[in-house]
Amino acid sequence: MPTTIRSPGSDLLDAVIDISRRAGREILDVYGTDFEARAKADDSPLTEADLRAHRLIVAALSGLAPRLPVLSEEAADIPYAERSRWERYWLVDPLDGTKEFVSRNGEFTVNIALIDAHRPVLGVVHIPVSDTTYSGIPGQGAWREANDRGRLPIGVRRVMRPPLRVVGSRSHGNPALESALSALGPHDLKPAGSSIKLCMVAEGSADLYPRLGPTSEWDIAAGQAVVEAAGGQVVRLADGTALRYNAGESLLNPDFLAYGDPDCFRRWPKR
Predict the structure, then answer these.
(1) Residue 155 — very low, low, confident or very high, per pLDDT cuts 50/70/90?
(2) Of the candidates 235, 213, 8, the residue with the CA atom closest to the CA atom of residue 124
């Protein structure tokens, strides 16, 4: 496997999917035990599963492409003076949805994205409990693989019809979101955890995922790649431009919308 990556293709995607599944097995090993969770500085939970998945993914990606840096949620204290020199790097959330993991509802994922010039150019989202993997390379396609049925192509729902199928965070409610959805019109709101929400948009089982509230870049990048590869968009609510990564000191995302219908941004209620 080359030490530099010029243009992501199927061989690279296969390798990253394999890494995500191996990390998923590490997570499930902990999931079946009486594990403990401790609070990080931002009060989010941390478990042994986060750390085991982090160590496996970082080691595997470093072996896959030794010259590419890895930015992981569990090792994110890298100064921007150093990060700003990165043109291409891996962006990883080893266990997205730790709250879901702790509550044992199964809605947690492994997220791995390749970032090039501030944009995700490859993404893999693996759901360990169901052994389901979503993957995508913008411009090449998006896929879902589950239950040994092979890798099947997926695509967004291009035309929204009422009631709109909206997916929202299971663990992070927001009064501003409730107000906006009321103004949007008839809709069905389905709660879900982690990057599963983005994958639902990518496969067309949801029309829209609005996020009004803080997320970190590693939460969204892999899912954004899948949505864009499936024909959708993930845009800043403020101006409709695509989310960008590692563009400043902060690693927090702005409010955003993920959708398939190109008319969605215009229809979203403005504050």
Answers:
(1) very high
(2) 8
Would you state the pLDDT for residue 174?
A: 78
pLDDT band at 169 (very low <50, low <70, confident <90, very high): confident
The structural domains of the chain, ordered by start, are 10-153 (3.30.540.10), 164-267 (3.40.190.80)
What is the DSSP-derived secondary structure letter of residue 254?
P
In the sheet with 141-145, reading across from the earlier edge strand, the strands are: 70-72, 88-96, 109-116, 119-127, 132-137, 141-145, 151-153
Rounded Cα distance, 27 and 31, in Å: 6
| Best CA proximity match to 220, nearest among 242, 240, 203, 188 | 242
* Predicted local confidence at residue 3, as pLDDT: 41
Going by pLDDT thresholds of 50, 70 and 90, the confidence category of residue 145 is very high
Single-letter residue type at 183: A
Please, which pLDDT band fits residue 162 given cuts at 50, 70 and 90? confident
Q: What is the distance between the terminal CA atoms of the chain, rounded to a whole angstrom?
A: 49
* Tokens of residue 216, six digits: 């970190």
For residue 177, give the DSSP letter: H
Q: Where are the beta strands (DSSP E) in 56-207?
A: 70-72, 88-96, 109-116, 119-127, 132-137, 141-145, 151-153, 164-169, 187-192
Assess contact for 43 and 21: CB atoms under 8 A. Answer: no
Instruction: Give the CA radius of gyration of the chain.
Output: 17
Question: What global pTM score does this model have?
Answer: 0.94
More confident residue, 155 or 99: 155
The long-range contacts involving 141-150, CB below 8 angstroms and separated by at least 24 positions, are 141/229, 141/230, 142/202, 142/226, 142/227, 142/229, 142/230, 142/231, 144/199, 144/203, 145/17
Cβ atoms of residues 194 and 97 within 8 Å: yes
The count of other CB atoms within 10 Å of the CB of residue 266 is 9
